[in-house]
Automatic annotation (TrEMBL):
A biological-process GO annotation: L-proline catabolic process to L-glutamate
Pfam families: Pro_dh (PF01619)
EC numbers on record: 1.5.5.2
Protein known as: proline dehydrogenase
Native source species: Sinobaca qinghaiensis
Domain of life: Bacteria
Length: 303
């Protein structure tokens, strides 16, 4: 039943017609609980509120279905405005973005130039940029883009997904690069990814330990309290310094645990998405855990 529900919502997340309709619906499906409004200003208000609780943030202007160079240019300009807003309000925050939003499927060289412009701006403001990982088809292109960019910029990193068989090899190849490690939230074929939760969890812990023991900065993104406890124990026993890693969770989920980890003295960051192109992101959150479906329905009727 859980697998069927996951596959259903992952299927919906890729539906471009529903994505377009969702923009007209606004946040009436409960997305307001997990998306920090539509504007940069609303996102910054959320980030500053988190900062006051000792929580760092990452902001992401949502959007994936880009079909023209003009749309990609507009997305790049929005990233630049977001960086300026982070600097202007003094938020403790970095920028997350997707290469599909910047037109990697349209023109890779154009996407590269957009990324250079964004990283130049971020470097001038002493800000970091995280390239989000998307589906498997975009995994190698994303890593290729990262390697080109890292030749000129050190303020950029990416995400590695534990459900992919290749994850450990990619961790080896990216020693020294700040990485966000996640379990993975897309529907992938068993030719490239584990399907069993126990195998995914085991590999998640393996790549976390692998990246940490290489001396690399590691962001551990999970809501799983068992994984968090194991990481706490491992870092303490291995003598991993507290400034070499951080825990991350998504905005709107397990808020009490987020605040508790920050109060315990761990570096903690909340991933804060915003914008009106929220549909695909929201469907993937519903796919991840059956509990999120009831969470969404509560949001629909709490207006």
């Amino acid at each position: 039943m859980q697998k069927t529900s996951r596959n259903f919502f992952l299927f919906l997340s890729q539906n471009k017609t529903l994505n377009k309709s969702a923009k007209r619906w606004g946040f009436n499906l409960g997305a307001a609980k997990v998306v920090a409004g539509e504007s940069i200003e609303s996102a910054m208000d959320t980030v500053l509120s988190l900062n006051r609780k000792g929580i760092l943030a990452a902001v992401d202007h949502l959007g994936e279905f880009v079909s023209s160079e003009q749309e990609a240019k507009e997305a790049a300009e929005h990233c630049l405005r977001t960086l300026e807003a982070v600097d202007r309000c003094g938020a403790d925050c970095y920028l997350s973005l997707k290469l599909t939003q910047l037109g990697i499927d349209i023109d890779r060289e154009l996407c590269f130039q957009f990324m250079k412009e964004i990283l130049e701006k971020a470097a001038s403001l002493q800000l970091f940029v995280r390239i989000d990982m998307e589906d498997y088809a975009h995994c190698q292109p994303t890593l290729d883009m990262l390697k080109r960019l890292r030749k000129e910029y050190d303020n950029v990193g990416t995400v590695i997904q534990a459900y992919l068989y290749r994850a450990s090899d990619d961790i080896d190849d990216l020693k020294g690069v700040p990485l966000r490690l996640v379990k993975g939230a897309y529907k992938e074929d068993d030719a490239v990814a584990w399907q069993d939760k126990k195998q995914i969890d085991a590999n998640f812990l393996n790549i976390i330990k692998q990246h940490l023991t290489s001396g690399s900065y590691t962001a551990i993104a999970t809501h799983d309290h068992r994984i968090i406890e194991e990481v706490k124990n491992f870092t303490a026993e291995a003598g991993i310094p507290a400034d070499q890693f951080e825990f991350q969770m998504l905005y709107g989920f397990r808020t009490d645990m987020q605040e508790a980890l920050a109060q315990e003295g761990y570096r903690f960051r909340t991933y804060v998405p915003f914008g009106n192109d929220w549909y695909s992101y929201f469907m993937r959150r519903l796919a991840e855990r059956p509990q999120n479906v009831s969470f969404a329905f509560k949001g629909m009727f709490s207006k």
